[in-house]
Amino acid sequence: VALCEVFSDVEDNQLGCVLTRTIHGLLSNAALTLHDVGAGGAFVFSGNLRSEFLSAAYDLVTAGASLLTESESLQWAQLGLKELPISTSPEVTRSILAHILSSPVEKLACVLFQSTLQALASSPAVREDRILASSFARPVLKVAQSLVKVAGPASWSNLLSVALDSLPVDDARKHRFQQLCEAAATRAIDAPELAREFTELALNNC
Questions:
Q1: How far is the C-alpha of 159 from the C-alpha of 47, rounded, in Å?
Q2: What tens digit of pLDDT does each residue of 58-111 get?
Q3: Mean pLDDT by 10 residues, the chain (206 residues)
Q4: What is the pLDDT of residue 112?
Q5: Most buried of 14, 50, 186, 202, CB within 10 angstroms?
Q6: What angle do CA 104, 143, 188 make, to 5 degrees?
Q7: Which DSSP helix (H) or strand (E) runs through 176?
């Protein structure tokens, strides 16, 4: 991360190539490690170590964002979306959401909505820091408004309903979450209001 901060503005093609290779190498190794752990690999994280590893990884993703291809950016968005419902660290959750907000995550829209609802309902990080729920509003708003333009209100509503249907979340929360997403998509509510509603949803006031 420090390398990116120090050398990002240096106009030196050779140095830029070295920095790019270094960042790609570090992120590739980090992604492989996370994949191995997720598949039951030998390297097992303790709770604190996992949070520290993820925090460092997403700090590096943010610092090297301009060096990532769209595919690499989406890979890290996808890894983050899988982490959100089980995240124990508010800091890690915010870092993941910041990356998701800057990524072309419309391609992962269904996973975004699923992960958001699950995180609001049961994430340890959200239970620890209820204000954290509001941080999910901007990514959801961005993707919902983008999708409704492409698919139209009816198709978008059906897509969302199918995506949420199989989640192990109570029906009242599902229904309220879908209402909020549909309202956000049609600009019936803005980001601050959606943030407040997500906070209430996390508190089970639906």
A1: 35
A2: 888 887 777 788 888 898 899 899 999 999 999 999 999 999 998 888 889 999
A3: 48 56 67 57 59 85 80 89 94 93 89 97 94 96 91 87 94 96 94 96 74
A4: 96
A5: 202
A6: 155
A7: helix 171-185
With a CB cutoff of 8 Å and minimum separation 6, the contacts of 39 are none
Q: What is the CA radius of gyration of the chain?
A: 18
Q: d(Cα 179, Cα 173) in Å, to the nearest integer?
A: 10
Question: How many residues in total does the chain contain?
Answer: 206
- Contact call for residues 183 and 145 (beta carbons, < 8 A): no
Strands (E), 81-200: none
Name residues whose C-beta falls within 8 Å of residue 30's C-beta, 6 or more positions apart in sequence: 53, 57, 60
Give the C-alpha separation, 170 to 2, whole Å: 44
